Task: inverse folding
């Protein structure tokens, strides 16, 4: 029984630790919000920027995306758009040809063939990178509707500070009102970005590239050799390499893009499972990498290790203890006001998320707040399931020496 | 899809919470009482009675007559009404009882009106009788030990039972005065005692009331009492040798530290004693922890109380949890150090309050002795059978035969006659090491001749779990586990407290931030 009690204690402490980390990040995220809302964006000399958009069967969304990018509040002769049409089998190519006519000279279409293409996003980006002429490289996913000001704000921040390797913006959900899932994703996105990214930047000058809406120096990309096409989450992986070179990545909340989120659980599961596997890949690649220890990105690697191994394990243990307690006579021999502890954790979670909602004009509604209460038991549990599946699947792939197959998120 | 999953997740959670809250399918029993104490006494009679029901594997609830709500008893399979004061039963309860179809048991006084009703067999009250001398049950007569207490509490409500069946009665030399009688599924007990023969008769009748036939067993235990660091090791050894030779299992009530004139002598200081105790442990003895020092303040071990402040009639500490944890943990470590593995607990002089019992319930599977059934003074109740899982008791090994102090064998045999009116009677007596061993030999021979066998505690599943100490027994085998954890874990309370304050600090911070943020929103006109 001592083992059982110890397991329970372990899970109790690590869940607390996680919540306390969350609380601290929220605090610094808020601080960063206050500070950054005073930033002004001004630049005299605008650099040339290449915008990369990898596209694979994106007929539903590609036109809108190209148009919003072309509509950037940025001098038209100072940026180019490169769409990498990665073996699309639908009308993507046709639509792009039409657009090419319209935006002569500013839109470049790179088509991959069966030798070079079809190997996922990182590969497509690497191909696009070969054609890029800009000093800075911006990346947008094919489903994005960036805000007109987004690029300009990103460029201003990156240009200002030579220590920055990249800057990232914020993303919001277009289809947040579609159903319960997208509403949850919307809330999750807000709290994850504002609080986690903002807080980490403020505390450790640390951010990870979220896969879209970011700007990176081309010379750095060339030096690191582009994206790692074996990585499952190429964005996180490249972030760590940027940090290893001694550069930083900054969060610029004023650069906003709107993106589509999964509208059903099947797609959500696949997408998130890939994220989890990607992060676990990073853990395995860098946890024992000594060259990284001095860099602040190592904090991220440790953080991922904590999340996917320690914290995940402890939530599983705590669920088991709960279920065993319900159905059997197995009891934990630890006493103390456990209900109070549980309740405080719940309140903590709600407050953390509520604060991030309050930073957006239209998100701080009764409905959304009610959703937070529900989220703790539902969406968070789903995350637990996805994480378990992701970690398991990654380990299985590793043991069986299988390569990960890229899964492209479906559009709606 | 998501909605479905959410709904099913919620359903599962609800189900599990429901399951967690749901009772096992045990009979539900209600006690309705008018007052908890007999006039002039401190013993919590309701508690004493409730604990007795712990023998029957039922769920017991209690409600005061004052707060009784109409119709409440319909939720129960059986209802006990305890009348301890002279007042008649309130009409609210009375009317409910008339309608109630389940088993009803009226105990004590104040039932004149109820018993007149047809449902209870129209028994006419003939007055109070003060002259009862003997009590008869199953053709056995016992003398009715009347107590001369503060008030004249020795009366019996005398009813003329025409329709019912008398199960036990008193006599005053001339006539029979019904003690327990039944009419259909309604039982009446005309007098309530929580001690003595009448209590034991009631305890036996409860088997019929609750329809729980228990198997008869003739088993008693022997306990060697107050074994401490200054005990006469030779005598102890001879007791161990004798019991080993006879093949009799027994218990040792062990006090790990002996305090005298401010100095503490630990058992581990006395090598010979430790060896003797280990020898006994291997040859039939189960060790029962009998406190740490069996005293408080500057008293001498064995004379003082440890978990009850007898001078002020209160608990020795306001934080009994900490107080007990401190002492019991020290005691356990001392035992482990000597290779001795206690399996149960017995409070010195049985004196301990509810908080203390609750602490014990969390850490000990088994308690031996009497139960102190009062928060206000040192009153104990001794039970004639084992009690499981009720209130603050996990398992009680009851002691009810007294102790050997000289050639008082007959006294113990008389006690055994009294208590064995209970069909599955269980009990024991204890023996001090300083008493002549011949007396012990005598009583054991006598008990053997009468067909009694001796109880072996370690054959049962017992456990002690306190912090990092874990001792378990099963089928005579003892397992133990002791990890010296790092301090951080040893002190779960402190870490919990400090974490809690960090948490509350953070929470306050969050609230402040949220308010600030809402204020900013207002300012911006969002």
Result:
């Amino acid at each position: 029984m001592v083992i059982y009690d110890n397991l329970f204690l372990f899970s109790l402490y690590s869940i607390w630790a996680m919540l306390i980390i969350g609380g601290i990040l929220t605090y610094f995220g808020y601080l960063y919000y206050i500070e950054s809302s005073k930033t002004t964006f001004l630049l005299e000399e605008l650099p040339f920027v290449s915008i990369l958009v990898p596209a694979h069967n994106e007929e539903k969304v590609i036109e809108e995306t190209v148009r919003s990018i072309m509509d950037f509040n940025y001098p038209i002769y100072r940026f180019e758009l490169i769409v990498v049409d990665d073996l699309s089998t639908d009308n993507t190519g046709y639509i792009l040809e039409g657009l090419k006519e319209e935006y002569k000279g500013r839109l470049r279409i790179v088509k991959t063939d069966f030798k070079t293409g079809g190997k996922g996003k990182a590969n497509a980006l690497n191909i696009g990178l070969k054609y890029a002429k800009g000093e800075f490289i911006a990346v947008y996913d094919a489903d994005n509707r960036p805000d007109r000001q987004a690029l300009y704000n990103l460029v201003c921040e990156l240009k200002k500070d030579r220590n920055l390797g990249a800057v990232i913006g914020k993303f919001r959900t277009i289809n947040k009102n579609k159903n319960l899932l997208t509403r949850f994703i919307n809330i999750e996105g807000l709290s994850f970005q504002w609080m986690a990214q903002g807080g980490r930047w403020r505390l450790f000058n640390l951010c990870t590239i979220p896969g879209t809406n970011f700007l990176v120096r081309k010379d750095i990309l060339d030096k690191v050799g582009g994206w790692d096409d074996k990585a499952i989450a190429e964005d996180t992986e490249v972030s760590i390499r940027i940090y290893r070179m001694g550069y930083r990545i900054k969060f610029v909340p004023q650069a906003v893009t709107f993106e589509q989120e999964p509208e059903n659980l099947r797609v959500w599961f696949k997408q998130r499972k890939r994220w989890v596997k990607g992060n676990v890949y990073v853990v395995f690649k860098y946890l024992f990498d000594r060259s990284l220890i001095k860099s602040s990105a190592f904090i991220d690697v440790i953080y991922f290790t904590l999340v996917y191994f320690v914290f995940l394990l402890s939530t599983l243990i705590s669920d088991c203890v709960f279920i065993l307690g319900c159905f059997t006579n197995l009891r934990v021999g630890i006493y103390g006001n456990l209900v109070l502890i549980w309740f405080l954790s719940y309140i903590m979670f709600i407050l953390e998320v509520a604060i991030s909602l309050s930073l957006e004009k239209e998100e701080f509604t009764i409905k959304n707040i009610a959703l937070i209460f529900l989220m703790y038991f539902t969406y968070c549990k789903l995350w637990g399931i996805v994480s378990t599946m992701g970690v398991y699947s990654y380990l299985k792939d590793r043991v069986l020496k299988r390569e990960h197959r890229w899964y492209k998120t479906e559009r709606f | 899809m998501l909605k479905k999953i959410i709904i099913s997740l919620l359903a599962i959670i609800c189900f599990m919470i429901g399951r967690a809250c749901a009772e096992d399918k045990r009979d539900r029993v209600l006690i309705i009482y008018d007052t908890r104490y007999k006039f002039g006494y401190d013993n919590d009679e309701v508690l004493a009675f409730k604990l007795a029901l712990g023998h029957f594997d039922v769920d017991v609830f209690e409600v005061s007559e004052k707060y009784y709500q109409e119709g409440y008893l319909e939720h129960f399979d059986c209802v006990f009404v305890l009348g301890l004061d002279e007042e008649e039963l309130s009409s609210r309860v009375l009317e409910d009882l008339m309608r109630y179809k389940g088993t009803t048991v009226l105990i004590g006084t104040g039932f004149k009106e109820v018993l007149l009703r047809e449902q209870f067999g129209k028994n006419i009250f003939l007055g109070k009788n003060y002259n009862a001398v003997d009590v008869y049950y199953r053709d056995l007569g016992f003398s009715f030990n009347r107590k001369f207490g503060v008030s004249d509490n020795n009366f019996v409500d005398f009813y003329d039972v025409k329709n019912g069946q008398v199960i036990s009665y008193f006599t005053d030399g001339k006539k029979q005065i019904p003690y327990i009688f039944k009419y259909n599924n309604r039982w009446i007990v005309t007098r309530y005692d929580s001690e003595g023969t009448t209590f034991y008769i009631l305890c036996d009748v409860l088997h019929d009331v609750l329809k729980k036939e228990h198997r008869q067993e003739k088993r008693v235990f022997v306990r060697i009492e107050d074994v401490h660091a200054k005990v006469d090791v030779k005598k102890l050894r001879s007791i161990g040798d004798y019991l080993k030779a006879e093949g009799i299992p027994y218990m040792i009530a062990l006090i790990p530290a002996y305090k005298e004139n401010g100095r503490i002598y630990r058992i581990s200081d006395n090598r010979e004693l430790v060896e003797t105790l280990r020898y006994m442990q291997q040859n039939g003895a189960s060790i029962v922890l009998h406190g740490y020092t069996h005293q408080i303040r500057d008293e001498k071990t064995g004379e003082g109380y440890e978990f009850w402040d007898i001078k002020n009639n209160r608990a020795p500490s306001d934080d009994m949890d900490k107080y007990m944890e401190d002492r019991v943990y020290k005691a356990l470590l001392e035992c482990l150090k000597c290779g001795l593995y206690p399996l149960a607990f017995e409070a010195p002089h049985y004196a301990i309050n509810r908080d203390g019992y609750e602490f014990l319930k969390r850490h000990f599977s088994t308690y031996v002795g009497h139960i102190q059934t009062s928060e206000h003074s040192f009153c104990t109740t001794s039970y004639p059978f084992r009690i499981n899982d009720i209130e603050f008791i996990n398992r009680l090994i009851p002691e009810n035969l007294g102790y050997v102090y000289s050639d008082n064998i007959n006294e113990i045999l008389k006690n055994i006659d009294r208590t064995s009116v209970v069909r599955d009677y269980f009990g024991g007596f204890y023996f001090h090491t300083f008493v002549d061993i011949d007396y012990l030999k005598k009583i054991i021979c006598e008990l053997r001749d009468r067909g009694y066998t001796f109880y072996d505690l370690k054959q049962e599943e017992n456990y002690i779990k306190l912090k990092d100490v874990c001792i378990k027994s099963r089928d005579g085998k003892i397992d133990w586990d002791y990890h010296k954890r790092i301090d951080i874990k040893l002190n779960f309370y402190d870490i919990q407290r400090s974490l809690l304050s960090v948490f509350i600090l953070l929470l306050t911070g969050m609230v402040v931030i949220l308010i600030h943020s809402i204020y900013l929103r207002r300012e911006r006109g969002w």
About this structure: The two ends of chain B are 35 Å apart (CA to CA). Residues 485-490 of chain B have pLDDT under 50 and may be disordered. The domain at 219-482 of chain B is CATH 3.20.20.370 (TIM Barrel). The longest helix of chain B spans residues 492-524.
